[in-house]
TrEMBL record:
This is Chemokine interleukin-8-like domain-containing protein. Ligand for cxcr3.2. Chemotactic for macrophages. Residues 23-84 form the Chemokine interleukin-8-like domain. The lineage of its organism: Eukaryota, Metazoa, Chordata, Craniata, Vertebrata. GO terms for cellular component: extracellular space. It comes from the Eukaryota. CDD domains: Chemokine_CXC. Gene3D superfamilies: 2.40.50.40.
Length: 98
């Protein structure tokens, strides 16, 4: 009986560890406030808050392959985000029928 209890405990522990390893959480542990030139940006990703992470997260992948998490409250990033969002949500007028 003790061996069975130990097996169940080990199985339960491995399931908990597997769940913790795969559960969603914040992507950014630390954020940068330092200004960066957009010339070095390869991509910019914005992740809104979720049930698993209360923070808005901004991840910038640089052309050198590094990824930087940026504090969404710094002044230099706000106009960049606005520009990206405007470009993303511009209605497509080329395919409209008159």
């Amino acid at each position: 009986m003790e061996a069975q209890d130990a097996s169940i405990a080990a199985l339960s522990s491995s399931r908990v560890l597997a769940f913790l390893a795969t559960s969603p959480q914040c992507r950014c542990v630390n954020t940068s406030r330092s200004p960066m030139s957009t010339q070095h940006f390869k991509s910019l990703q914005i992740f809104p808050p979720t049930a698993h992470c209360r923070n808005t997260e901004i991840l910038i992948t640089l052309k050198n392959g590094n990824t930087v998490c940026v504090d969404p409250e710094v002044n230099w990033i706000k106009p960049i985000i606005e520009k990206v969002l405007k470009r993303r949500y511009v209605p497509n007028t080329k395919n409209t029928v008159s």
